[in-house]
Automatic annotation (TrEMBL):
It comes from the Eukaryota. SUPFAM superfamilies: NAD(P)-linked oxidoreductase. Belongs to the aldo/keto reductase family. Aldo/keto reductase 2 subfamily. Residues 6-215 form the NADP-dependent oxidoreductase domain. This is NADP-dependent oxidoreductase domain-containing protein. It holds the Pfam family Aldo_ket_red. InterPro entries: AKR_Detox_Biosynth, NAD(P)_OxRdtase_dom_sf, NADP_OxRdtase_dom. It comes from Hermanssonia centrifuga. Keywords: NADP.
Length: 230
């Protein structure tokens, strides 16, 4: 409780404001009880320092416990979950996204573009041969075969839907897979921000989504894969 209070008050001072619209619980503290965490967060809300609560990097069952406790005791529950989600890393589809649908929570995905690994071969070659590319390329910039394969499919689908930017296609994939998705986008140039915004104009067919997912198979894990097979 004290740590959250000091953290928020410090942020409010730096922002020169008296409240924030959404207060994040960024990491789950396994040494603190659900009751203490939710009571502490609710105090910040009743004091007018935060309007809504957001959680990230927490197990689904803990978030469910928190929301149930909040509902049972007339407190504010979490309204949005932030987590990593992209076409190559879909772990949140096992428990987190179903939780969000059941609880009426929004979802804020980050790293949707796989740290820049989703790019066309043309763009890669251009950056390799450019002066900035020769100076700035690192081993982490290189793509593996799966990343190349998925990038190729995104480029193909982009041409089919009339979009010349695979980043927009990748973001559109998330927007159409789950309701109430609010992507966390980034970019150090206006053109990158505009390409992200262009995702709002992209409409993918169900066949497109299946094609994207077939390129990077995902095991949803037990018990979901077992229940589907029964």
């Amino acid at each position: 409780m004290k740590s959250m209070k000091l953290s928020l008050e410090g942020s409010l001072g730096k922002l020169r404001t008296t409240y924030v619209d959404i207060f994040y619980l960024h990491w789950w503290d396994f040494s603190t009880s659900v009751e203490e965490i939710m009571d502490g967060l609710h105090c910040l809300v009743t004091q007018g320092k935060a309007l809504y609560l957001r959680v990230s990097n927490a197990p689904a069952f803990r978030v469910a416990q928190c929301n149930q406790y909040a509902q049972d005791h007339g407190k504010l529950q979490f309204v949005i979950y932030q987590g990593e989600w992209n076409v190559l890393k879909r772990d949140v589809e096992g428990e987190i996204l179903p939780l969000c649908r059941a609880e009426g929570m929004a979802f804020a995905p980050w790293n949707m573009l796989c740290v820049g690994k989703l790019r066309t071969d043309t763009k890669e070659e251009r950056e390799k041969t450019g002066q900035a590319g020769r100076q700035g390329l690192t081993s982490t910039w290189k793509r593996n075969e799966m990343e190349r394969k998925v990038s190729g499919i995104l480029e193909k689908i982009g041409k089919e839907v009339g979009v010349n930017d695979i980043r927009a296609v990748a973001i559109a994939y998330h927007l159409q897979k789950q309701p109430h998705v609010f992507p966390l986008i980034g970019g150090n140039k206006i053109k990158y921000m505009m390409s992200n915004i262009n995702a709002l104009k992209v409409t993918l067919k169900q066949e497109h989504i299946k094609e994207i997912e077939s390129a990077a198979p995902f095991d949803i894990g037990f018990p979901h894969n077992y229940l589907v097979s029964v």
